[in-house]
Amino acid sequence: MIAPHTPHASPVPTPPRSVRKAVVPAAGLGTRFLPATKATPKEMLPVVDKPAIQYVVEEAAKAGLDDILMVTGRHKRAIEDHFDHAFELEQALAAKGDTVRLDAVRDPARLADIHHIRQGDPLGLGHAVLCAKHHVGDQPFAVLLGDDLIDARETLLSRMLDVRDRFQGSVVALMEVDPSQVHLYGCAAVEPSDEDGVVRVTGLVEKPSPENAPSNYAVIGRYVLDPEVFGVLERTAPGRGGEIQLTDALQELAAGGTVHGVVFDGLRYDTGDKGDYLRTVVRLACERPDLGPEFTAWLKQFVAGLDQNGAERRQSRAAA
User: Fold this and answer.
1) What is the reported pTM?
2) Under 8 Å CB-to-CB from 139, ≥6 apart: which residues?
3) What's the rounded Cα separation, in Å, for the pair 2 and 16?
């Protein structure tokens, strides 16, 4: 087991990073959330009172990435509108003197310089990243997947950017998962490095069976990629599911010794799964100072009622 990195209490200031651009793939169909996502992008589903994708953009902006490209698809216009100004709404809120909601409405457009491009054909994550080639050019860039929300108190992305500046090449975020779950992720073969929480990635397999997995280190939805990846993606044949897999391209780069991994054991929320989405909403609501106390009190009563009702049903069945 490789120990994850533990941030220092007083980090030493670092020079300006070489990575300033981020790519957020957001062209998926969201089939796991149908019918809610029939006309609403899955990235716009609310997590308390913000759409999931806003948490991702806030994370990128907090890490100093001020140029963000969203790769969207058909029927995703709501994403573009959310990160634009809404003049009529802003004027109405300003006229009422509702400065709190006015700031909340304006904030998405002020987070970063946000651009949009459409993927066109749904050919996989690797193809979505390839769509960013002309925008990114020959610069390193981050990729943040909208299904994975990293708690705002974590420093995973900043840590990955630091590792990229020191080691060059590409960097992936890794998390240990139960072996029974490796088939849901890209899985990495790793070697220790001289730094706590950082490994050398020697190979990657997309969604392997448990018996064929090289480890239980799963690739989660954060990447810092060298522009070299574009040339590899252009010659990467469709893989699992008939899609161009980013994992396959990173496997080629890993074979050349240019991929590192940052091991993460912090708070991560998977909003791509219905159960985890609901748990994410409950957890974040409980932590909100404006909602948490009242909501947590109600939640305790609700759970106590479930336990009591369950006990009564068991007693009734036993008596029968």
Assistant:
1) 0.88
2) 18, 19, 20, 21, 227
3) 29
